[in-house]
Structure prediction request, 664 residues.
Amino acid sequence: MWRRRIPIAAIIAVIFALSTAYVAWALKDLPDPNSGLAAGDIIILDRNGQVIEDYSPAGHYHVNLNLDQMGKYAPAAVIAAEDRNFYHHGAIDLQATARAVWVDLTSGGLNQGGSTITQQLVKIQLLTPEKSLPRKVHEMVLAIGLEQRFSKDQILTMYLNRVYFGHGAYGIGAAARTYFNKDAKNLSPAQAAFLAGVIQAPSAYDPVLHYSNAKARQEYVLRGMVTTSAMSQSEAGTASAEDIQKELHIGVSARQSKAPHFVDFVLTQLESMFGSAAVQQGGLVVHTTLDLNLQALAQQAVAQGVRDLHWANVNNGALLAADPKSGEVLAWVGSADYSNDSIGGQFDVVTAERQPGSSFKPYVYEAALRDHKITLATVLKDELTNFNGYTPHDFDNVSMGMIPARKALLFSRNIPAVQVAQMEGMNNVIDLAHQMGINSKLDPGLATAIGGSDVTLLEHVQGYQVFADQGQRVNLSWINSVDDSQGNVVYQRPGTDTKDVLTPAESYLITDVLRHYQYQWGFGWNRQMASKTGTSDNGHGQIPDSWVMAYNPDIVIGTWVGNTAPNGGGGHILAFGESVGSSLLRYFVNGLPNKMRDWYSTPTGITHGCGGSELFLVGTEHMCPSPSPSPSPSASPSALPSVVPTPSILPSPSPLPSPQPSPT
Prediction:
């Protein structure tokens, strides 16, 4: 070693020089606490490279404050939420870091947090969103340098002035004004804890969309404030009981967006992919699947459709459309007016759970057809029936007697659908619905067969995507790729995620029934679609929700209308699903590009049987109906036409028909 002392000394000197140069280079970008700290833009692009929204912090609300102007509770709440030992450790919390490293090693990825407020300030101000060991080292070096240069109070002040609270509010001063219309120093303990809880994920804890999550996070912060001696247990109990939801006065920021609900959802996904710190720092370009031309058409259709249905007490609507072959979302309208607080316009109905009504029935019939429990010719009883204590009713309280399954689905009869569900078994129906994309919990009771369990429009469109792509499930997607501020790709959507849920023949039977629906109920569409309406019932004969689902090989669409109010409240409507199909969805379908007119050819596995023209799955053609169905009573809808009329081309939407009974 002594003989090699010169080369060893030279190597040590080189390492020291490189380390010094690296630290000097790393520290050159440390922020100045005396100047306003700026975040970078997040630019959201559609599938053709057009700007959906330039999510620019410069266009949002920011108030720069000194620490003493932030009041007593806001700094204490943020410390309780983000770094309870902030004043008692250095730039790095070694215990929390060791725990995070262990979780990352055992889970096989860089997932766990453990960052101090100093590290978080570095993340949101200076670093790229990548997750790697070199980046973590760079973050730690910058954090140590930050604490060498500035005091804890200065670092906390910078963080509180820079961190994003959602709804366009950067810093605690802007957040206090945006959420509660008051100065930060006047925040109550409950309000301060509520805002501090939002920091971890401003989209996921958005109180407009996810109030229960935000409230639960507030409880966590209040417990932390007790732990850090910022308040007593009794004070925390008083703060927990404070009615924060009533105190919220969130104003719509001055953002300019061509698809605000979609952008809000994408930001939530970015938080999940990269962490909220990376999203707060900005400097991202997000290439999405949205088509701005179809988005504009969808927004116009929803707005006009809601105006048309004003007579029915409808004040809100939503629409989601996707490419069934690729699963790419093409249009996303979460409400009729994002800026309208009176309808809770910022609340995204696409991701809200609602009762789907009869639009759920195709899953029921499909399960029974697939399992050879019925055929489209099977005779079902449309008469008042007690199913082991459950007695469903039809929308018109009229009995159609004995009718084939095809007619029962086309006329959206409730009692036959429940009969089919009982024959198939509700567990089998639920299993198929889950396989097709319904993720919400479905009650195993027979009421679910006619839409008695809540689903979201997002997952309902996923379910109908399987019908539209002839039995193949292609998971819906919304982000193609993400670039950082240097143009490096930090995320690339993997290949299409597909799964065969049904055979083409099995899905074709439902499609062949639903292709008649638009003519039976007079939607006035200018192209062939398969469609199904849904109208929910609150158990007292009142309608909270009306839906229409529609598809062809080029597009799958879900739309909803209802009556909503701030904070999730609302009233009832008079519009059945049929009214939605002939107004709102007619505007959208008739405005679609001419190329979206493809239709299905009969797949293998389909045959005719029982000496008639009805379609059967191969192997079920011997399941002939007996007895023959009785004629429909005169008060019921007209019989199924033997020849499907050619859809007429409408140059512009015709006047909305007057209200009339329609399917549930």
